[in-house]
Write a structure and sequence with these properties.
With 333 residues, the chain is of the alpha+beta class. Helices cover 41% and strands 18% of the residues. It binds dinuclear copper ion (CUA). Residues 125, 128, 164, 199, 201-203, 207, 210 line the site of dinuclear copper ion.
């Protein structure tokens, strides 16, 4: 790698944490703010060290030169310098970092205990999408969380295949999702808004395309979302285009995807995302692209091109059938 390119990469890494939809320093939650403060502390100490060490090195070189030329630079107590600069200061710095990390870790994994009742969400990581269930509310969706602002959210995280990691930089730190285990993790958004999350553990070819969104809304809006979702999950959508539904069944989509009134048997798990509200989601294929008709058709026709390693097989359909199928999917909301 030539020098220019190396500098360019280095320059790109610095602001990537501060801009874009996953700005970890532009926080929407107390937990994330605490993490950002710790980040600033680490950065400050690293900057001080990075300046002090070359400074001392230059000073030593200068002195050596002066001595060599016979211009005595005066005596320096070498032992004292080592004890202070080489032992005391580094130990104090490391203790500061350790103490701050320890205090922070206690705060971000706590259930934000202040007597507030928590909302529980079960999250299962799949290659390469997120299964989202609200057990108390009886709501199932995928890749797009809706949570009430200011309410502690208890996530119960697990995985169906390999290890994934749940990370919404603007809300809290990371937590792994491990097959056969359930990890508890907490979120609480202080402000309304959409926060982008990303799988943060390499999990296969499309790991980088395993994103999700957390939409924090006022409690009343959350409540009406729950009522609407729970109602519509029960019965087949009466307004659903019949032709599209029959293409859906004929193409075998119903073997992997639950739809309103046609849930998959629980024993099957969730081979593919629940499509009960797929028409109202903002993105498609776990944040891969905006949820438009054209993208939906392209995704169904050739998922591997858009998301290598995805479990979804390609479905070739005549244009009219594809149109009908897309109509049907967008009627599910
Ligand atoms: Cu899932 Cu990386």
């Amino acid at each position: 790698m030539n020098k220019g390119r190396a500098l360019l990469y280095a320059a790109a890494v610095v602001p990537s944490a501060c801009t874009g939809p996953q700005r970890m320093l532009d926080t929407g939650a107390t937990a994330a703010r605490d993490i950002a403060s710790l980040w600033w502390l680490f950065t400050a100490l690293a900057v001080i060290t990075s300046i002090a060490i070359p400074g001392l090195l230059l000073y030593a070189i200068q002195r050596g030169r002066r001595r060599y030329r016979g211009e005595d630079g005066g005596e320096v107590d070498g032992r004292r310098l080592v004890w202070i600069g080489g032992v005391t200061i580094p130990v104090l710095m490391l203790l500061t970092v350790l103490g701050a990390s320890y205090m922070l870790s206690g705060r971000i994994v706590a259930p934000f205990e202040d007597g507030q009742e928590a909302l529980t969400i079960d999250v299962t990581g799949h290659q390469f999408w997120w299964e989202i269930r609200y057990p108390q509310e009886g709501v199932t969706t995928a890749n797009e969380f809706v949570i009430p602002v200011g309410v502690p959210v208890r996530l119960r995280l697990t995985a169906s295949d390999v290890i994934h990691s749940f990370w919404v930089p603007q809300l809290n730190g990371k937590m792994d999702l491990i097959p056969g285990r359930t990890h508890e993790w907490w979120l609480r958004a202080d402000t309304a808004g959409s926060f982008r999350g990303q799988c943060a553990e390499y999990c296969g070819m499309s790991h980088a395309l395993m994103a999700f969104w957390v939409r924090a809304v006022p409690q009343a809006e959350f409540d009406s979302w729950v009522v609407q979702r729970a109602e519509r999950a029960e019965v087949p959508a009466v307004t659903a285009p019949a032709r599209g539904r029959s293409v859906f069944v004929r193409a075998g989509c119903d073997h992997c995807h639950s739809t309103p009134g046609a849930p998959l048997p629980a024993a099957l798990g969730a081979p593919g995302p629940d499509l009960g509200d797929v028409g109202s989601r903002t993105t498609l294929a776990a944040g891969r692209m905006p949820n438009t008709r054209a993208n939906m058709a392209a995704w169904i026709a050739d998922p591997q091109r858009l998301k290598p390693g995805s479990r979804m097989p390609a479905t070739r359909l005549a244009d009219a059938d594809m149109d009908a199928l897309v109509d049907y999917l967008f009627s599910l909301r």
